[in-house]
Amino acid sequence: MIPAPFDLVTADSAEAAVAALVEHGDDAKLLAGGHSLLPLMKLRLAAPAVLVDIGRLRDRSFVRDDGAHVTVGALTRHRDLETSPVLAEHAPLLAAVAAQIGDPAVRHRGTIGGSLAHGDPASDLPAAVLALGAVLVAVGPGGSREIPAEDFFHGFMDTALHADEMLTEIRIPKTAGAGWSFQKFNRRAQDWAIVGAAIQLGPTPRVALINMDMQPLRASATESAVAGGASPAEAAAVAAEGCSPPEDLNADAAYRRHLAQVMVRRGLVEAAGRSAASGQSTVT
Amino acid sequence: MSAIGTPMKRREDPRLLTGEAKYVDDIQVPGQLWMGMVRATVAHATIAAIDTSAAEAMDGVFAVYTGADLQEMGLWGAPLPCAWVVTPDMANPAHYPTAVDEVHHLGEIVAVVLADSRYRAADAAEAVVVDYAELAAVPNLDAAMAGAAVAHSSLSTNHAYHWPLVPDPDALEAAFANAAHTVTAEFVQQRLIPAAMEPRGVLAVPSPYGGDITLYSSTQVPHILKVMVAATTGISEAKIRVVAPSVGGGFGAKLNINPDEMLAVALAHRLGRPVRWTESRTEAAGSTHQGRGQHQRIELAADAGGKLLGCRVHIDADMGAYMMLITPGVPLLGSFLYTGVYDVPAFGFTCDGWFTNLTPTDAYRGAGRPEASYAIERAMDLLAAEVGVGPDEIRRRNFLGGGDRFENLTVASTLVFDSGHYGPNLDRALELADYDGLRAEQQRRRAAGEPVQLGIGLCTYVEICGLAPSRALGGLNYGAGGWEHAVVRMLPTGKVEVVSGSTPHGQGHETTWSQIVADKLGIDPADVTVLHSDTAISPLGLDTYGSRSLAVGGVAISMACDKVVDKAKVIAAHLMEANVDDLVFENGAFSVAGTPAASTPIQAVAFAAFTAHNLPDGVEPNLQEQVTFDPPNFAFPFGTHVAVVEVDTETGGVRLVGYTAVDDCGTQINPLIVEGQVHGGIVQGVAQALWEGVHYDEDGIIKNPSLMDYLVPSAAEVPSIRTDSTVTPSTSNPLGVKGVGEAGTIGSAAAVMNAICDALSPFGIADLPMPASPQTVWRAVESARATTGGAS
Asked: In what order do the strands lie in the sheet with A63-65?
């Protein structure tokens, strides 16, 4: 529980953070809420030589209604997502996902940008941005660029971010009352999902899975089935298609495949119910 | 108004909750050195070489010692102690604080770094390079019994001891020969990590010129530790002071004589520098003893009506790599309870202890009794199914004394149960849980074929606590007595100081003791101060474990109060010019019977005893009395727990949705503290049933050493617990008290597993291993569906 020695650089702007990343290269890691990185450092599974603290960039913490989409600052804490009236109206899935991350202490420290940049397939927020079809904005030495969520996650804790880039905001298309569901199966409330599913219906129904492969991913076979009018049970039966689920003490691959089907089926039923309640058709 | 029986809020809590209380880690001294442990990363190996050069060259590093270095320095007077040599021929390989040639479990210390900060100690420990030549490991009990590999190269077998308790072998044989029904079941008590909120820690402060040493330790047992420090290090016992400051829980894990602690004392004493260490969580998984670790086989014989005729038990117990303080005795603490609350004419118990290349096992909340309670209570449910009656009915048919009140009843295991009254206790629990309503809801869900099924589980437990009559412990070859010591003194201003040999680590002793003293002396509880946990202040004591504090230590305080009143009465009679025999003591004052208006408060007597100006001839000044109480018998609390679970047959997920506990711990001093103990105990037992368990691989490596993977539950996993109590006073002490620190844990694992098996009985599932993880439950359901075509 004692991290290896490291140097600390405090950034007072995104530009300063990027400059520090440029200076220190692969030896540096950004520190936001610290709830993904610090546990790894305390177990000495990660030992960055330099930590660039971006936790003081309070202007990067916001949830803003930008017309067609909602923009979320990368340093917005989970608790602020959970309680945001803008998200409750325009992207309730994200608020619901944030409300189930870890425990209250984690939710008051952890940030959406930190969680996404960590790229952990067992985390909840990557699935949420995949299901919502979000666009991620990163800034680097050459300026900023937009990365669709579906192109962001490359492998186990590996993302499209370059070593000298910082995630600054997440743009989420408004869901216009379409049904959604978040299903998380775990043994204790504070744990990562053994398997989870984030579902957002609408013109393009999206189903994203948690902890079903080396990276966060979408259940494309299920999405096609839903788009084609399949019943929840039919669509869920193909939820694990193409997945290579990890194996651990909680679950082997076969059990994870089974859980994915149950979670997706229950989620599709719940999402359809929400669509109906708000006057939306289940599938368009 | 009586203080005893009042649910007073704990006086300890404000300073604990605000951070004012000091734990070992809060105590800083100048010149201190931090220990960083180099621990074995393999379970069984010879140490080929250790390279300490890189570590020694690091900034802030004072020294690096290997096990061989320490042996050469002659630090050890004796190996670490095992105080419970259960049989004369018990194998007991020498256990020194550091390995020298061979390591025997993951986490065993092979070298120690001393540095000027905790961080530098950790960095340097990581820089020590150990070359292991791996040996075949014994990674579990099955491997230990198979014997293909031997855990200690110095031993020819893994078998440590065989311990039988078979009072009447012929009667036992006859019971099974004549049985209409028999049940045989095998259970695994998985290893558990105690996980106290405060990790273990130690600070040893020497006095190089005075020759004495003060040891601040996060321990349950400062008095026992003092004796054992002397025995292990050779430092004169009279030069050792042990202080247990605020201690954040122990659950038995701080009832031991640990290698790291002995290293701190011995090095501080040798070097003349304060030496400290605080355990990290992941380190604790391999370095602090674990609980449970047993394979149980229980057989019941019953007549056609389900009335028990006999009970036969064999257990194989995983000692781990070494015999620590009471490692071999823990399974035997349960031996007397395998017949539970039932009238069983014939009984037999045998236990074999086995060495493995795993962290040693030792006491963990309940220590042997949760295991026993689990086996008999699970087996009773199986018997109920066999006989074709409900789990409540099979229990009623077999209660000791027919469920009626009894006192001093000899049971099949040869012990004498102090008191019991089991029938009404069960009645109350079923009523409070709405047992009939739950059964109706269960039937509804079964009939509807709902995916989420309901299960209801009972556990009617009895436990043995209040350790203990010293003669009884001697009969079991335990290395110490079971008395407790107390001093009660009235100060000149009328306030009271109590010196207690019991050592609290979360139990609220200060509150409870003040309530007893307040009633006995007729004073305000706020006027009572309790001193404890420092061998310089409280030199005599046997500390806190086995739910013994109240039933032994609290009783000693009560008896010391009686002696104070007796002496005060003599002085009061003298002051009042009355006959001693005519005086009565009521509401804190002495008066002549029949004339209460002319009274002398005990505080006035205390001042007179202090000035000593006018005492009767032959009466010594001051009001101070001491008592060492050695109880004539153990205490046997009991109770009924009802667990309600929802089992999701699609996912295998189990949710505990209801829990009712009606406990009987005899007379209650503080019902609020009783309730708190019951709550915590229940959750700890539920944790064994649903979440916790150490996973070892085939090489003896722990796969879940951190709290990310070792699943200690939080409040979010536990429903509101309904509690009530019945009161059947103990006959083992004048207060009628029993003990409640472990009762919840002793009752809850069986209740939860009975509930899960009850939910799944339509699937033909009779038993599941603990913890009942979702994957385990789902596989059992899938397998049942495949073989039977499914039940619902």
From this structure: A63-65, A69-73, A166-173, A135-140, A143-148
* Subunit contact A189:B717, Cβ cutoff 8 A: yes
Residue spans per domain, chain A: 7-53, 60-173, 180-277
User: What are phi and psi for residue B94, nearest 5 degrees?
Assistant: -60, 135
* Residue range A180-277, CATH number: 3.30.390.50
Mean pLDDT, residues A129-153 taken together: 97
Q: Which of A1, A187, A255 sits opposite B711 (nearest CB)?
A: A187
In order of A37, A272, B565, the CA distances from B518 in angstroms are 53, 65, 12
- At B470, which amino acid appears? S
Instruction: Specify the fold of A60-173.
Output: 3.30.465
Residues of chain B with pLDDT under 50: 791-792
Of B376, B389, B419, residue with least CA distance to B401: B419
The reply to whether A67 touches chain B by the CB within 8 Å rule is no
Q: Please provide the average confidence, as pLDDT, over all residues in chain A.
A: 95
Q: Does domain B294-467+633-788 have CATH number 3.30.365.10?
A: yes
A194 has a chain B CB within 8 A of its CB: yes
pLDDT of residue A201: 97
Band (A284; pLDDT cuts 50, 70, 90)? very low
What share of chain B has pLDDT > 90, as a percent?
98
**Nearest residue in B to A3, CA atom:** B119
What's the CATH fold of domain B13-135+197-249+254-287? Aldehyde Oxidoreductase; domain 3 (3.90.1170)
User: Chain A: nearest CA to B394, how far in angstroms?
Assistant: 33
- Asked if B282 lies within 8 A of A43 by C-beta distance, the reply is yes
Nearest CA in chain A to B772: A187
On whether any CB of chain B is under 8 Å from the CB of A191, the answer is yes
Average pLDDT over every residue of A187-211:
97
Helix (H/G/I), strand (E/B), else coil: B785? helix
- The domain made up of B483-629 is a member of CATH 3.30.700.20: no
Q: Which residues of B touch A45 (CB under 8 A)?
A: none
Which is it for strands B589-592 and B595-601: parallel, antiparallel or unpaired? Answer: antiparallel
Q: Do A1 and B703 touch (CB under 8 A)?
A: no
Check residue B380 and give its pLDDT. 98
Size of interface A-B (CB pairs under 8 A): 58
Q: Nearest by CB to B706, which of A43, A185, A252?
A: A43
For B351-400, what is each residue's pLDDT tens digit? 999 999 999 999 999 999 999 999 999 999 999 999 999 999 999 999 99
Token pair listed for B364: 């963990």
Q: What pLDDT score was predicted for residue A283? A: 47
- What are the tens digits of pLDDT across the range B256-289? 999 999 999 999 999 999 999 999 999 999 999 9
Q: Is A257 on the interface with B (CB under 8 A)?
A: no
Measured between CB atoms, does A100 come within 8 Å of chain B?
no
Within an 8 Å CB–CB cutoff, is residue A43 touching chain B? yes
Indicate the DSSP class of residue B550: I
CATH class of residue range A7-53: alpha beta
Q: Residue B94, by phi and psi: left (phi above 0), alpha (psi -120 to 50) or beta?
A: beta
Given B122, B709, B717, which is nearest A2 (Cβ)?
B122
With an 8 Å Cβ cutoff, is B716 touching chain A? yes
Question: For residue A116, how many C-alpha atoms fall within 13 Å in the half-sphere facing its CB?
Answer: 36
Spans of all domains in chain B: 13-135+197-249+254-287, 294-467+633-788, 483-629
